[in-house]
Write a structure and sequence with these properties.
With 263 residues, this protein is of the alpha/beta class. The chain has 2 domains: 148 residues, 3-Layer(aba) Sandwich (UDP-N-acetylmuramoyl-L-alanine:D-glutamate ligase), CATH 3.40.1190; 51 residues, no CATH class. Helix content is 36%, strand content 17%. The longest helix has 20 residues.
């Protein structure tokens, strides 16, 4: 195999997020499921966009966001994803190239429009998403030509799709096991069985922590105390053991020598 051109190459859905403020009444009138993601077709995307309030556009998609992060940290990153030859496709192409990601997948000249996620944000900060994949779902084998040290395929429906990636490439494959996404939450052994080399859990700890925080706040609100949640908390002794607090204390004592004259 020739030397890789990139540290990370991601294959994913090229999506432009369109974020707009909205009311609960608007969601109800449009039949939008609150705080959820719903796939829609192109006609629905166009009609919904026409009725949304003015907002802002930002290129997205988890795979694209990942390589954007790699590039911002100085890594050599590339992205394979499909956009159409339209305004949103131009926005996505401009954004990902500007941050330093190599992106040269030819734009779709005929067919569906560029993918977009229409995000209506209500005053309580809930994000209700309607996603039209469009051109993003039309990546072909001819589009996959870049070399990389690793490949991150996005939104794999089942293990057979991971296996197809493994059969096509001979570099490490990374799987993103994020909750509430398109992929089932496969085990590490299941992923290893189809040739996946690395697994990441990008927001699992955050969601777990926020879930615990919500349960504790609900207990305080309803019971007037956190007593019911104490048994599930990390104890002080376990926390000190986990962070090796004694070792840090010895280090801190050795470097902290500040004294105020005359005291």
């Amino acid at each position: 195999m020739s030397q890789a051109r990139f540290d990370v190459l991601a294959v994913g859905n090229a999506i432009v997020d369109v974020l707009s403020p909205a009311s609960d009444a608007f969601l109800a009138a449009e039949g939008i499921a609150k705080n959820a993601m719903t796939l829609i077709d192109e006609d629905r995307a166009r009609s919904l966009y026409a009725r949304m309030q003015p907002g802002k556009e930002a290129s997205g998609g988890s795979a694209a966001n990942t390589v954007a992060g790699v590039a911002s940290l100085g890594g050599k990153a590339a992205y394979i994803g499909k956009v159409a030859n339209d305004q949103l496709g131009e926005i996505f192409t401009h954004d990902i190239r500007t941050i330093g990601v190599h992106f040269d997948t030819p734009a779709l000249q005929e067919g569906p429009a560029s993918g977009r996620c229409l995000i209506n944000v209500t005053p309580d900060a809930a994000r209700s998403m309607c996603t039209f994949l469009g051109a993003a779902a039309l990546v072909t084998e001819d589009d996959v030509e870049a070399g990389a040290d690793a490949i991150f395929p996005e939104a794999m429906k089942d293990l057979s799709e991971f296996q197809a990636i493994r059969d096509a490439v001979d570099v490490p494959i990374l799987a993103n096991m994020t909750e509430f996404g398109k992929s089932a939450l496969f085990t590490v052994d299941e992923l290893a069985g189809v040739g996946v080399n690395m697994v990441i859990y990008p927001v699992t700890l955050l969601r777990s922590a926020m879930g615990a925080a919500e349960r504790t706040l609900e207990s305080i609100k309803s019971d007037g105390t956190q007593e019911a949640q104490v048994s599930s908390m990390l104890t002080r002794a376990r926390l000190y053991d986990l962070v090796d607090y004694e070792a840090y204390n010895r280090f801190d004592t050795g470097v902290f020598n500040f004294q105020i004259p005359g005291i």
